[in-house]
Amino acid sequence: MTDSDAEVRTSSTSEPFCSPTRTFSEAIAVCFAGYFDFYGRASRSEYWWFCLFTILMQWAALVVDAVAIGTWHMTYSWMVTLACFFPGIAVAARRLHDTNRSGWWQLLVLTIIGIIPLIIWLASRSKNKKNVYNQADCSA
Fold this sequence. Notes:
mainly alpha, 5 helices
């Protein structure tokens, strides 16, 4: 691993981006560091590790709600949802940028059938070439 791979990325549009593979902890750190960062690009690993983190946190919060409160009031679950909502939207926008699509395509989730192409796009390979979201040429 080189020094540039180990650095946590900031998503300014002037820096190169070659879709580095992220570990679980790196992905969480990058997503929360870019809480409202809707610019730049995110790798598949970054997006899916954050999705897994959100799901695990939701399950843990539901268990804590059931054990600590004794009923399903979902107090902690709502706190997790609020804490992860904007980073989740931001990393999904950056992930769509990495596939050369606008982050506004996330609105497809409001339709029933639109979820299918959205999941396909979020799971597709990175476009490691110049695009309107980041001008770095990472074809190597």
